[in-house]
Write a structure and sequence with these properties.
Number of helices: 2
CATH architecture: 3 Solenoid
Distance between the termini: 57 Å
Order of helices and strands: HHEEEEEEEEEEEEEEEEEEE
Structural class: alpha/beta
Oligomer: single chain
Amino acid sequence: MKTTDLTIYVRPNYNPGRNIIVQCLWYFVNHVVFGCPFFIFYGLKRWLLRLFGAKVGERVIIKPNVNIKFPWRLEIGDNVWIGEKAWIDNIDVVKIGRNAVLSQHVLVITGSHNYKKTNFELITHPVVIEDGVWVCANATVLAGSYLKSHSMVTAGSVAPKTAEPYSIYTGNPAVKVRDRVIE
């Protein structure tokens, strides 16, 4: 029976998108500014993300202790809220629509591994979070997820691959429990 052998790990054609100097600069900024529990200067955070290549809308609020892997693979619409200790592990593209909320401790993952391969090959897929989506506290959004307009993933849930518009999902894996009616 074959086994996993991490000495032959493969990242097929994977490129972080920036040279090592830019990556190191970003890791420093991410740690000092975004990772700081006291840093609440939202305008500066938006400016820094744009400086490093992110597309960031107006009035975006990024709370303290947020971790963003690669800003150059991030698109955020207007009026988005990102809560404390959220982690956007975007080795692939993450698109967040207008008026969306990622609550505290939300984890957005764009990569995984092919567990069927001996070499544990890296696999990446983008994540799309459309307008008005609410990903509640401690929820996880996995690579390839597409959360459609005004859908909602409840606290502690693992988002479905596709969340239909104006629908509420809960559980692991999350299933639709009812419609989201906004009054």
